[in-house]
Amino acid sequence: MTREILKGIYQIHVPLPGNPLKYLNSYLIKGNDRSLLIDTGFNWPECKEAQLKAMDELGMDWAQIDFFITHAHGDHVGLVNELADKDARVYCSEIDAQIVQMFIHSRYWELSDMFFKQHGYPVEKLTRKHDDIEGYISGGGNIQFTPVKEGDTLRVGNYRLYCIETPGHSPGHMCLYEPDKKLIFSGDHILDGITSNITAWGGSYDCLGLYLKSLEKIDALDIKLVLPAHRKLISDYHQRIAELVTHHEERLQEILDILHGGFMSAYQVASRMHWDLTYDSWEEFPDFQRWFATGEAIAHLEHLAERGKVKRVQQEELMLYELA
User: What count of other Cβ atoms lies within 10 Å of the Cβ of residue 38?
Assistant: First the structure.
């Protein structure tokens, strides 16, 4: 489904079959000489068919389309290598562009597995393979990105779009803000009805702390309409941001309550947290759901450690947490 949101801005529903997100909101901004497509969908036939159909309906020439990738996840960048003409510009933050290019290397996933194993995740239960990434992101190492940073401006048709760095959901997540029309393309930074997965990315990132600061940054802007990458458009963004902040504060308190039972790994904490999923027990969660849940638990535990509420306890090769 394709519909015109504002003059020259089209929302394209890109199906994500079998994925709880259901579909991606991709956006096309029509320009005079060049147009801009924001996010693409996975490297899946269903996603590609939706994009090809939408551009055909809109009478677009792929040779005149540039791309803006809000962040590194496959449902946003997966089709760029399939769709981009040889002269197309593919805008993305430098750090997330580097992450996409690292995704294709098995060493990246080996280090990721080591990190999760350190936090108690039974890595031997992972069913994904390191070489499966091509099924989500086509030719990640071949994409020639044009890096953009905070304050850079893209002019497309009658729109003047400012790049706003909003790290948290990914280290280099970026939104596009149009101050004259008071609208923002929020990627996965602000979503309605669901919350962005704030997970650990390894290293020294306080991902949740970065995310909360990024919410404050967006809350300070003058916005009439939020165009997110999933679910419905958002008009009352102040209320939605307040709801997101409350959600994470409740999550943090839940974890503190769990740690009253003694020191635990992030995997153990995740197994005791409440998740809005239709499974009767933690053991019934699919591997990828336990993996995401553990990553989110790590992010919240690390934020609590940064705030001095919990302490890290290194026990041989295992990282544990206890109340401070």
Answer: 24
